[in-house]
């Protein structure tokens, strides 16, 4: 089977025209990360360059494309390194992202030995908030370890962010994976048994917490096979130093994160509600809604002009920016018809644990169904679920304003709104009410500032270094034979 020639399915700008490449910051298994400076602003970023000669088969190309899409998909979360853009030339793929100059969590642990309980709780909270965000968006990370978390700056209390989504996957609720990937000390027992889901991420986070508090991994041996035997059968050591001085509450949390039974293991939300993690006795009240539900709720509260503008903006977005939403759409559109019916939406929301009443689901359905066809088609779904931070970019707002301002006068009139409604197949829209809501100076038309403030209103709130990429080079049969003993 022939190898593909490109990762990104459309032509991109040349990265060297936009950025000046600087010193090497780090080396991964597939790519090298460099400091880069944006020529137009002087702002500093990190650029991960992946030589295409290292991508040996179709799956490798797909992995890199998926990594780019997942970074865009997670881009609103403060615990994730922000992607700036992806570029491709004949030799390499370049992912430009936020610069985190404070180094790896791994290196700080080595330097410190271990952390105080208070500091460890703050760090693990960031890790687990990232895991909860991933799971709410239908993504499993699959390679959580201290090397994959970077500090933004050198300061002791600098923010911590997740990076490297090279092994991450989109998943459907209940989906089972069998590929053995991860990193030896952090891999969950069910991954070694080749039958696992997103719960494996919480195990890996539990291993990180154990290391933060003690400086050593909970399951350790001289060889990889030995480490895996310990992961499958070994007991947790809470007797050696410094464990006698560590609180029972911390140990209780670790036991629940390192429960070998994934169905009884804490979820990310359970961890965030545990008394050892909770600041000032205020636990988060409920798990993060699935992204589909929270974004549909937000969309349903918008006026028709805002919905049309979002539709326009989402149709202009690049494939990598909406790739994650496409996966969420496919998860709900179970018959692959290209549109979501009421029953499919109801079943999809149930699968992600939603307790909504039928009338509430119908309201979300009606809100997203812009053209009143009775179903939510693909472009309606993307418009309704695209995250606000993408929509709020100035260039997107200007393009949407220009779309409505047909005569280029710098104002949107009621006639121009009427025309846009006609183009989108909308009827009986109360345009005079929308106009009143947005036209702050009551001059009968909407200028750019009024349009931009409407669009932005109400949108806030919202220790082993190796990675096993494809398959472990250890014969797992020896390890798994222990299972029966």
Automatic annotation (TrEMBL):
<dbReference type="InterPro" id="IPR011992">
    <property type="entry name" value="EF-hand-dom_pair"/>
</dbReference>
<dbReference type="GO" id="GO:0005516">
    <property type="term" value="F:calmodulin binding"/>
</dbReference>
<dbReference type="Pfam" id="PF00069">
    <property type="entry name" value="Pkinase"/>
</dbReference>
<feature type="domain" description="Protein kinase">
    <location>
        <begin position="19"/>
        <end position="277"/>
    </location>
</feature>
<keyword id="KW-0547">Nucleotide-binding</keyword>
<keyword id="KW-0677">Repeat</keyword>
<feature type="domain" description="EF-hand">
    <location>
        <begin position="392"/>
        <end position="427"/>
    </location>
</feature>
<dbReference type="GO" id="GO:0005737">
    <property type="term" value="C:cytoplasm"/>
</dbReference>
<keyword id="KW-0067">ATP-binding</keyword>
<comment type="similarity">
    <text>Belongs to the protein kinase superfamily. Ser/Thr protein kinase family. CDPK subfamily.</text>
</comment>
<protein>
    <recommendedName>
        <fullName>non-specific serine/threonine protein kinase</fullName>
        <ecNumber>2.7.11.1</ecNumber>
    </recommendedName>
</protein>
<dbReference type="InterPro" id="IPR011009">
    <property type="entry name" value="Kinase-like_dom_sf"/>
</dbReference>
<dbReference type="GO" id="GO:0035556">
    <property type="term" value="P:intracellular signal transduction"/>
</dbReference>
<dbReference type="InterPro" id="IPR008271">
    <property type="entry name" value="Ser/Thr_kinase_AS"/>
</dbReference>
<feature type="domain" description="EF-hand">
    <location>
        <begin position="320"/>
        <end position="355"/>
    </location>
</feature>
<dbReference type="GO" id="GO:0009931">
    <property type="term" value="F:calcium-dependent protein serine/threonine kinase activity"/>
</dbReference>
<keyword id="KW-0449">Lipoprotein</keyword>
<keyword id="KW-0479">Metal-binding</keyword>
<dbReference type="InterPro" id="IPR018247">
    <property type="entry name" value="EF_Hand_1_Ca_BS"/>
</dbReference>
<dbReference type="GO" id="GO:0016020">
    <property type="term" value="C:membrane"/>
</dbReference>
<keyword id="KW-0519">Myristate</keyword>
<dbReference type="GO" id="GO:0005524">
    <property type="term" value="F:ATP binding"/>
</dbReference>
<keyword id="KW-0418">Kinase</keyword>
<dbReference type="InterPro" id="IPR050205">
    <property type="entry name" value="CDPK_Ser/Thr_kinases"/>
</dbReference>
<keyword id="KW-0106">Calcium</keyword>
<keyword id="KW-0723">Serine/threonine-protein kinase</keyword>
<dbReference type="Pfam" id="PF13499">
    <property type="entry name" value="EF-hand_7"/>
</dbReference>
<feature type="binding site">
    <location>
        <position position="48"/>
    </location>
    <ligand>
        <name>ATP</name>
    </ligand>
</feature>
<feature type="domain" description="EF-hand">
    <location>
        <begin position="356"/>
        <end position="391"/>
    </location>
</feature>
<dbReference type="InterPro" id="IPR002048">
    <property type="entry name" value="EF_hand_dom"/>
</dbReference>
<dbReference type="InterPro" id="IPR017441">
    <property type="entry name" value="Protein_kinase_ATP_BS"/>
</dbReference>
<dbReference type="GO" id="GO:0005509">
    <property type="term" value="F:calcium ion binding"/>
</dbReference>
<dbReference type="InterPro" id="IPR000719">
    <property type="entry name" value="Prot_kinase_dom"/>
</dbReference>
<feature type="domain" description="EF-hand">
    <location>
        <begin position="430"/>
        <end position="461"/>
    </location>
</feature>
<dbReference type="GO" id="GO:0005634">
    <property type="term" value="C:nucleus"/>
</dbReference>
<dbReference type="GO" id="GO:0004683">
    <property type="term" value="F:calcium/calmodulin-dependent protein kinase activity"/>
</dbReference>
<keyword id="KW-0808">Transferase</keyword>
């Amino acid at each position: 089977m022939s190898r593909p020639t490109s990762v990104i399915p459309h032509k991109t700008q040349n990265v060297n025209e936009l950025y000046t490449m600087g010193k090497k910051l780090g080396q991964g298994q597939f790519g090298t990360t460099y400091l880069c400076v944006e020529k137009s602003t002087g702002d500093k970023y990190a650029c991960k360059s992946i030589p295409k000669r290292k991508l040996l088969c179709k799956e490798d190309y797909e992995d890199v494309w998926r990594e780019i899409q997942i970074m865009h998909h997670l881009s609103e979360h403060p615990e994730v390194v922000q992607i700036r853009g992806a570029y491709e030339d004949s030799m390499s793929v370049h992912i430009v992202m936020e610069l985190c100059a404070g180094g790896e969590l791994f290196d700080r642990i080595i330097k410190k030995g271990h952390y105080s309980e208070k500091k460890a709780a703050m760090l693990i909270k960031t890790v687990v908030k990232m895991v909860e965000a991933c799971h709410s968006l239908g993504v499993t990370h699959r390679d959580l370890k201290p090397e994959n978390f970077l500090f933004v700056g050198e300061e002791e209390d600098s923010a911590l962010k997740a990076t490297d989504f090279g092994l991450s996957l989109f998943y459907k609720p209940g989906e089972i994976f069998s590929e053995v990937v991860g990193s030896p000390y952090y891999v969950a027992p069910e991954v070694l048994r080749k039958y696992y889901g997103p719960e494996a991420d919480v195990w890996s986070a539990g291993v990180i917490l154990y290391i933060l508090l003690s400086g050593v991994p909970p399951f350790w041996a001289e060889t990889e096979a030995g480490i895996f035997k310990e992961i499958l059968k070994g007991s947790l050591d809470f007797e050696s130093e410094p464990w006698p001085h560590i609180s029972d509450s911390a140990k209780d949390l670790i036991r629940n994160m390192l429960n070998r039974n994934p169905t009884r293991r804490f979820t990310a939300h359970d961890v965030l509600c545990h008394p050892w993690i909770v600041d000032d006795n205020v636990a988060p009240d409920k798990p993060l809604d699935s992204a589909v539900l929270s974004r549909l709720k937000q969309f349903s509260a918008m006026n028709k002009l805002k919905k049309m503008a979002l539709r326009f903006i989402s149709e202009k977005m690049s494939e990598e920016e909406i790739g994650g939403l496409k996966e969420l759409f496919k998860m709900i559109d179970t018959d692959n018809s290209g549109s979501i019916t009421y029953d499919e939406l109801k079943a999809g929301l149930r699968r992600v644990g939603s307790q909504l009443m039928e009338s509430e689901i119908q309201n979300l359905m009606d809100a997203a169904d812009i053209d009143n066809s009775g179903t939510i088609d693909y472009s309606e779904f993307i418009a309704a679920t695209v995250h606000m931070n993408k929509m709020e970019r100035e260039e997107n707002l200007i393009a949407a304003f220009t779309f409505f301002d047909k005569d280029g006068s710098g104002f949107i009139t009621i006639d121009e709104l009427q025309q846009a409604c006609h183009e989108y197949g909308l009827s009986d829209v109360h345009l005079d009410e929308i106009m009143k809501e947005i036209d702050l100076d009551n001059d009968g038309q909407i200028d750019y500032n009024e349009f931009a403030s409407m669009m932005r209103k109400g949108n806030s709130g919202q220790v082993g270094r190796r990675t096993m990429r494809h398959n472990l080079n250890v014969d797992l049969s020896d390890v798994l034979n222990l299972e029966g003993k």
